[in-house]
Design goal:
By secondary structure, the protein is an alpha/beta fold. The protein is built from 10 helices and 13 strands. Helices cover about 50% and strands about 20% of the residues.
Length: about 375
């Protein structure tokens, strides 16, 4: 049992040649030799069956008259097994064609015949047709798998979104019903300035959460369709980070997180300001959420041609097995029961940074916090075009 050896075996279309004579195998092999086809040769039916267990063949060219298992018998065995029953079979024979012989061949599973002496043009034409059919079938199968995967992702997405949107909407609805009951009862004391301010504050938080969920959904939709637009402008990243830390100061106080800042004096570059702000806010929010109230370190350093942002917390940390997964859609290092959200934040961050020709990684050990490290090139303004 022999075959042609090639480094790209798995990417080529495989054809099985079965004949008990070396000369016939070599002749067929020579006729079919080309860059995108690899032939496997078997000198008996048993060897052919063994090869078919290992490889997926687009076509089998089988000699009819072989000792032991004949070509017709081999075809019948192939048709009886799920793995091999769909392999097209072309019988190769020197027998003069007659109706009985042809009928037996087609009955045993042949799709065509080649008669010796072989005409090279006829052989290549017939084989090429089956290669094209096989490749089309393979492309159709890949398309079907992608569609099935897309449907699964859509269903998962809708399930998560429905759950996450329902929580703040339910809270708003219950609060609204409670206030209406108090109004109907004439309980004006429930609506003092202080109590109204607290109500509005709670409503605003729920509305912000809904708005954030919708923004995430829109960003994922844009990313999936390749329409995540970038509007590059020159700005100072040091100033942006300090401004964001100031704007989020109340959140740090509420979470009892001390923030240590180590930001270089100036880091001017050409980026999409809104998107980079989105990246930094996400990383800071995660540090608050998972940092367990311990100090957070925010660093910005500049080197020739690039900047590096590091957001380090001292919280629960991330297991090594999860450190790649958390950058995928709908993934997180904790369960939904522990932390709410769509599991899209880091996925969107990664896509934004890749659109800027940058990247993100995480360094962490369970129980020792996590450091998210962003490397961002100083993109030339010309890329905006």
């Amino acid at each position: 049992m022999t075959r042609n050896i090639d480094q790209d075996t798995e990417t080529k279309t495989k054809i099985l040649l079965v004949d008990d004579l070396d000369g016939n195998l070599l002749a067929l092999d020579g006729l079919l030799k080309c860059d995108d086809v690899i032939t496997f040769k078997a000198k008996s039916g048993a060897e052919a069956l063994e090869l078919m267990i290992i490889h997926e063949f687009a076509l089998a060219l089988i000699d009819v008259r072989m000792p032991g298992i004949s070509g017709f018998e081999l075809a019948e065995l192939m048709r009886g097994a799920n793995r091999t029953k769909n392999i097209p079979i072309i019988f190769v024979t020197a027998t003069a064609p007659d109706k009985g012989f042809l009928f037996k061949g087609y009955e045993s599973g042949a799709v065509d015949f080649l008669f010796k002496p072989l005409d090279s043009h006829v052989v290549k034409s017939k084989v090429n047709i089956f290669i094209e059919l096989y490749q089309q079938k393979k492309e159709l199968k890949n398309t079907q798998q992608k569609l099935e995967q897309a449907v699964l992702i859509r269903d998962e997405f809708m399930s998560i979104v429905s759950h996450e949107l329902k929580t703040p909407l339910t809270s708003l609805m219950l609060n609204s019903q409670m206030r209406m009951r108090k109004i109907n009862k004439g309980e004006s004391s429930a609506f003092t300035i202080e109590k109204l301010a607290k109500m509005f504050e709670g409503d605003e938080k729920q509305l912000e959460r809904i708005n954030r969920l919708i923004d995430d959904m829109l960003d994922v939709s844009r990313i999936s369709s390749g329409k995540l637009s970038m509007k590059l402008e020159e700005f100072d990243l040091s100033e942006l980070i300090l401004d964001l830390l100031e704007r989020m100061s109340e959140q740090f106080v509420a979470a009892e997180c001390e923030v240590k800042v180590d930001v270089c004096p100036s880091a001017k570059g050409n980026w999409d300001r809104f998107r980079i702000e989105q990246v930094i806010v996400n990383l800071l929010t995660n540090a608050i959420r998972y940092g367990e109230g311990k100090p957070i370190l925010v660093q910005l350093t500049r080197s020739p041609g690039a900047v590096r942002i590091v957001v380090r917390d001292q919280g629960r940390g991330i297991a090594f097995a999860d450190q790649e997964r958390i950058f995928q859609r709908f993934e997180r290092a904790v369960t939904v029961a522990e932390i709410s959200g769509l599991g899209l934040g880091l996925y969107i961050v990664k896509q934004i940074l890749e659109a800027h020709h940058g990247f993100i990684r995480v360094e962490s050990q369970p129980g020792k916090g996590a450091a998210f490290i962003v490397d961002l090139p100083l993109i030339p303004l010309q890329l905006n075009s």
